[in-house]
Amino acid sequence: MSQLTIPVERHSLDNGLKIVLSQDRTVPVVAVNIWYGVGSRNEPTGRTGFAHLFEHMMFQGSAHVPKNKHFELIERAGGTLNASTWYDRTNYFETVPSHDLELALWLESDRMGWMVEAMDQEKLDNQRDVVKNEKRQRYDNQPYGDWDERLQALVFPQAHPYHHSVIGSMEDIDAATLDDVSSFFRTFYVPNNAVITIAGDFEREGALQLIQRYFGEIERGDAIPPLPGDPSIDPLIGETVRGHVLAEVPLPRVIMAFRIPPYSSDDFAVAEVARGLLGMGRASRLYRRLVRERRVAKGVVTYAFPLLTGASLMLAWATGYPGASPEELEAALAEELEGLVEAEDHEVRRAIALTETDLVRGLERVSERADLLSMFELYFDDPDRLNRELDRLRAVTVEDVRAFARKRLGPENRAVLIYEPKGSA
Amino acid sequence: MSTFDRSQPPVSGPIRSFDFPEVERRSLSNGLDLRVCKLSRLPVVSLNLFFGAGEGGLEESRAGLAVLTGDALEGGTVERSGSELAEALERIGARLGVSTGWEGTSVSMSCLADRLEEAFGLLAEAVLEPGFPDDEVDRAREQQLAAIRQRAMDPGALASMEASRRYFAPGIPYARPQSGTVESIAPATRERLGEFAAAAYRPHEGGLIVAGDLDPDEIEAMANHRLGAWVGAPPETNEFSVEPATRERRVWIVHREGSVQSEIRAGHVGTDRATPDYFPLSVANMLLGGTFTSRLNLNLREENGFTYGVRSAFGFRSRPGPFSVSTSVGTDVTAPAVREIVRELEQLVEGGPTDEEVAASRDYAAGVFGLQLETAGQIASRISQLVVYGLADDYYHTYRDRLRAVTTADVAAATRAHIRPAEVQVVLVGDAEQIMAPLEALQLGSVEVVGVE
To answer: In CATH, what is the architecture of A9-215?
Structure first.
């Protein structure tokens, strides 16, 4: 595959709403996708988890849409929908048969413009319970479920907006009020803090007119306030910081994390390739060495988080066999990560080839196209970056990866989180 | 304030009709059913090779062997080590996956179109000439044993496993975990894997499904070239008929001390994929617990806040699979949640669905069907279902019409025939000390705390 040629067209409304259109009429399906520039990083002390709780409230109806009607109408149309909250953003999306594009725009515009009128204490209390059950199910009642909150606290300083997790604390979720809901809405859910993307089967002029009709009269909000806390951060952790958890987990697991350049940096592509080289696929370095050859790990996982604020995060974890020593597992993982200073060219090329296939296959779905286009517009004012993603990765050389390993993957930039099964020590 | 009336949803535009893409069917001389679907969108190809080496065909002492053998295919071939095989595939951006179920083994691959020939050769080599070297088999076995340990400590997995054991009569494959137990996996050696693959990895009544940016003639030539010499049928399978463990409603608790939630499964034996009630039953399930606005989810989540979500599902298999409601609820609301689940089942069976619910579910299912035909992988796996369950060639062409023909009376009848609230087995993984007494007070049936097997 030489070059991506996804069509990309940019527009904006007077109220500041940014628009991205990407037409593909092969299948009669259309995706509507909105990214708001607000996430857990915008939460002040005492309100952790609020951005996510607010996302739930966005499904509780708006001035012209009763509770549950949003789901009901989209499902009735044969569509799918959801939303998600992350560190830097919150997104909302529908995929519908193309003849129901207008329905999705009506629903999204109603909650962007008139959500707060429909809020009441009963809805807040109900969704507070739902979110607390989400936290219990995914974090508290799940082996290793709290790893990300523990890791964030290790890698990011107390005052940094990434110090706390997206799900937040039970106390803070309990403390949220209806006033918080309306002020959060007025501050962040404004057209000048949002991107809407339509991808798939639609008629260009008609779609623009519909966006103007439904979103054009929503009032622009004030400028978005600066992030709470102190977003400045040293590029390296400066030492090895540690967390040790004795818990009801079946197998020992060692999670190692590193501060890496933010997503906006040119160097982030190096981290993505390094991450793929280490943990993507079964010829990856960690799988080959730790799982297949040395057989000290049952499985390995690597991630590079695309984060914006000062620094981002890369991690590698290895899950050991029953009875394995976490210390030995840690030593083996560290050795392989540090060994990346001698990465080889064929490893780099393999990682790029797999990333390419994954990207192209992802783009088969209009929902994925829309999501990436919204992200590139919101983060970089540059949705066409999607078509240059492959070039960005292909430009990474083996020297880049080696230099990255020397600078980033050593003990002076490392957080280590160990889960040890209770009763095994 | 809005400058126009927003109070009514907009009217839908004209529907653009869309059919399931055309599938060309060609039989190979060895009995393998080749189905090819040409799509012209992105330069990608997805492929599934299915054959009848499934867990349902294994007796209890060999449970999990088909899964283990499938996983061990990545251990390499007679020509290449596991690392060399992985490197050869991933160097060209191809991904190979093996998934083994009750019905058979499915080897899937995806790659960019210009790499298909090379990737397909590697897939054929992996399946037809597996090496099963000792160290790789040992590793795959240790991984599977460790996964069994993980499963036993994961409340959701544990609840599903315990539910199978309580729904199905002992000795029926569906009563046991699909990937086996410590006892059945520990003795697996390279000889056992090799014997199993030699006998069961056979093309007869299997299928090769290829979808994407391709030329059907080239695919046929490629399949003949790489798979033409592969012959034979899998051995006769372990025949069994499905019986419920009991017809008496009972409550089972797997004790998990200090659990902040209870995982709940409530259900019983359902029905098979060939049932004439497939469409009405699918609609019934959607309105019961198959969508966000289903009865169960609106009750347990949106009205009561007991849970993050609740779902119901029929596992349609070649023989009757489970019907099960699944959720995870706060420990203190466990009994009320169970009460509401049973009440919803009773109300649906006794009162039937409303016309509005049936219409909404029908529309949802018919619409979503089209949404899920975007990618080569989605289309290939749809076509695979035709092979696995022996469905008619025109199945997807008539799919939406058959859905739209379902009436409220059909749904009510199917519900009465296949959902039996009085026979439900309620399985919970949670803190027995806190949930036992309130569950007993519901008087659903005897409540028993059980150990993990």
So the answer is: 2-Layer Sandwich (3.30)
